[in-house]
Amino acid sequence: MSDGDGDPTVFTSTSLPSDPRLLATVTNAYLGTRVYRDILHVNGVYNGVVGDTHRADVPSPVNVRMAVPGVDSLAETFTLDTQTGTFSHEVQAAVCTATQQIYAHHSLVNLMAFSITVRRSPHTTQPITVQLQTPFVPKSQDLDLHQGPDFQGAHYVHGQTLVPEVQGGPRPTLHMLWTPVPPALTLRGEEQERCWQFLTAVAGSEEEAKRSYGEGLALAAAGRLHASHAEAWAALWRGCHVQLDAPLPLRQALCGCLFYLLSAIPPRHCPGFLFHGISPGGLANGTQGEDYWGHVFWDQDTWMFPNILLFYPEAARAILEYRIRMLEGALHNAREQGFQGAKFPWESAATGREVCPEEIYGAQEIHITGDVLMAFEQYYRTTQDQKLFREDGGWQLVDAVAQYWCSRMVWSEEERCYHIKGVMPPDEYHARVDNSAYTNAVAQRSLNFAADVARDLSIPVPEEWVDCAEKVKVPFDTEGKFHPEYDGYSPGEPVKQADVVLLGYPLMYPMSPEVQRNDLEMYEPVTEQHGPAMTWSMFAVGWLELKEVQRAQGQLNKCFDNITEPFKIWVENSDGSGAVNFLTGMGGFLQAILFGYTGFRITKASLRFHPAFPHDINKLKITGVSYFGNKLKFTITKEEIRIKVAESLLDPPACPLEAVLEESGQRFPLCEG
């Protein structure tokens, strides 16, 4: 990685990638597309029966290419500005500059828009024409679309998805209004500059679609449409600011990861907005046969969620509310397999039923249920939001997960402990194994958390929960002082992705530094070199915890093989296969910086931190860290740590904070400002 002083927030190129999967995405919490793609997707709108259900393809009116005909020398640039969430295509010719901007409006989430601005060069007077090319046809393989009457100059279609996920299940209706796109636009001879705006509004009701379109028109008429979008992004970045004094490629990767992840989260101050989760490739992807059909996995809860929670607990809560709404499906999944409680699906879509096309994963990769509950635990430890558990369905989910784990365990008389048999660990190279170290440890953590919440809510704790948590087997080799991945694992067997190393972080399973080192050294050389992108981030966090900073950076640098140019789109595997715009890999990378470099750990009693930097990083400043209703600013150098309470969001203020030095016990009160 080379040094450089360029702007890490703006990605510019004179050409587009040859692989269209690697084009920039423009999304908000409700709508998403790749630029120049003929379809867009709507959050939570799927079509197809269980194993075939996928994001419904909606024809995209924003798929428009701009060209300036009859001009010999053109200078073209394509730019993604992560600060304003805007993709731009600029054409510079002798007679004019033409700019197209494309964006999914960040605060008006039912709107996507593009604009064409033509500005003539000095000393030219002739009319200038810009051609617009669009393959748009208002038809879909997933929706039964019908044309309705025009509205305020916009065309209108509406229709339902064709096939529900389960018999009798929901078939969402969509309503779409869009500004018709002419084949050409002309700047007249007397005009110096002109901007044309094109809006698309999509909603679940005609009323909402018309209201959103009308609101967009009013903002466009006032010259405020793009400005209001950019202001919403500016507000988002103010609450989530990460500055690294580090080489440019690392800063670019950080900005790109934050941008794509923040694009996916629910908007602030929209209490009625129903969020439907985040899939591995985000809302721009997920058509049939692509990006796991847009399903929601542990990728959301384990890999993306901690980063979102650190800055935006209200968005994190919306993710948990999605899981609560899916509880009925999870209860069904457990019953279907003959167990009690709730088993969350390996792949989730509209109902919470298992929708994985391949039965083996849905049946065996049961650690997902513990992963979901770990997100609830991290949220509770960070916010102390008891209302989620007392009134909003959180306790019912916690209770059901604890019941599931107890029913899934069997007592071994021989070993005098509980076993969990016939599972697939995170390492998907191995199926139907007994006592996966990660699965059993996350089950134990689920049960301990369920007992803690019960006590806080003054609910009696079932003895079975305590017994199962205390006596579940987590495999450990006492001679070699390491954790075998499962019963019968032989050292040296290939591993697909991060598995046992997750015991250290994020599980924080109790172990000595010697054991943690042994686990890292055992699994690092046998883990698939070109496997899923989030793997090396977790090895990096492990080495940072042991203060082996250069070894950690060597692992983190492997992630750059998964980042493509020019728009910093991640691919799941470094050979280019798998999901694209792989938010899971980005989430792992962000955790390596936000939890690895800082040493942040969310525990029952505190937010701990113990920084460790590689040699080429001198300073890390993180603004907007949320803890107990406070917004904190951390400035960390190799010599010192400064902590400032930027603001207290609760009235009356949350319990007062203090920084404590663990070794000396010295305490520093933290007051607002």
Automatic annotation (TrEMBL):
Q: What class of enzyme is it?
A: hydrolase
Query: What is the primary gene name for this protein?
Result: Pgghg
Q: Describe the location of the Glycoside hydrolase family 65 central catalytic domain by residue ranges.
A: 284-490
> What does the record give as EC number?
3.2.1.107
Q: Which GO terms describe its cellular component?
A: cytosol
For this protein, the record's Pfam families field holds: Glyco_hydro_65m (PF03632)
This molecule's function is given as: Catalyzes the hydrolysis of glucose from the disaccharide unit linked to hydroxylysine residues of collagen and collagen-like proteins.
The molecular function terms of the Gene Ontology recorded here are: protein-glucosylgalactosylhydroxylysine glucosidase activity
- Annotated SUPFAM superfamilies: Six-hairpin glycosidases (SSF48208)
Which family does the record claim for this protein?
Answer: Belongs to the glycosyl hydrolase 65 family.
- What are the record keywords, sorted? Glycosidase, Hydrolase
Tell me the Gene Ontology biological-process terms attached to this UniProt entry.
Answer: carbohydrate metabolic process
Which protein is depicted?
Protein-glucosylgalactosylhydroxylysine glucosidase
* Reactions catalysed according to its record: (5R)-5-O-[alpha-D-glucosyl-(1->2)-beta-D-galactosyl]-5-hydroxy-L-lysyl-[collagen] + H2O = (5R)-5-O-(beta-D-galactosyl)-5-hydroxy-L-lysyl-[collagen] + D-glucose
| InterPro entries per UniProt | 6-hairpin_glycosidase_sf, 6hp_glycosidase-like_sf, Glyco_hydro_65_M
